[in-house]
Structure prediction request, 368 residues.
Amino acid sequence: MSVGKIYESENNILPLIESGNIAYVISTSTKGRNPDRDSVKIRRKAVERSVPCLTSVDTADAVADCLASKYSENTIELVDINNMRHSKRILSFTKMQTCGNDYIYFNCLDPRDKITDPESISIRLSDRNYGIGGDGVVLIEPSKKADALIRIFNMDGTDAGVGGNVLRCVCKYLYDEAIVRKTEMLIETDGLIRRLEVFTTDGLVSSVKADMGKVEFDAAKIPVDLDVQRVINHPVKIADEDHNITCLSVGNSHCVVFTDDVHELDLDDIGPKFEFDPLFPERVNVEFVHVLDNKTLSVRVWERGNGETTCGTGACAAAVAAIENGHCAKDDDITVKLHGGDLIIRYDGSNVYMTGCATKCFNGQVEI
Prediction:
């Protein structure tokens, strides 16, 4: 659509800006600030109506690149231009995984190794084609209340809250590196203290049992936007499809759906529909569960911010939901089969416990 110049026709750009139908303006005139010029009138009108106005094509290209990137206002590093780094940093890391749930771990116990931009670092390094590759980044930091404090960031830079697989890997790292040489550890994460028991073989950690704490069923605290106190086998519509959901929190929010065959699901399609549904104001992790028998579950997890993973808290949520729906019993060891391996979950009606292995993949350094 084209319109006339301001002095030529009433059908010009100014009424369009007034109408609210213009999303942004690119005005590239560089011939001064004479208030009689069309370009000056257009820019003034855009400012009056809070319409973004760019004054060069290069700037417009830069904005388009930012919008198309994985970064957002919450995951961009804010830089003090008076104290910018003069060279790239060399960061040492350890890659660890359990059940295929892999993260990039940074030892920040020494204040000199503090990382101030974990959100943007996670986006950059988690990329499996252009970075190290992983489900996110974990910072191991000092704690005044526990043996260590951890912060977990998803591959999209968002805060992951509590991660059961991460807790086990951190225990292995601390023990095997002789930083915390104890068979019972306390780890602080997301404002909570988790107690973990370490099992060793030949002086190295082979498996870890994690007390994941109390399970929260209060819909308002999970949160789930439903006018009920507990969401157990509750019928809902997600993307115009009927589902029965069970919702709970194990330090982060989960929605569990029971199905006859998890392997036939197109998780890349259905996962985001759950994650971003308005029913979950803070987004949600989703577990699709097939009950194999009263002590065995087959589970696929769509993790908010990461896509399909083998999430440890997702395994806990699946087992607790199976108990609440009468498929399994309390105080039994329940084997949760994920595509990367098995976890053993036990729920006593209050706390949920998770036992599984942890594996160090490799150490490395990255220039960033």
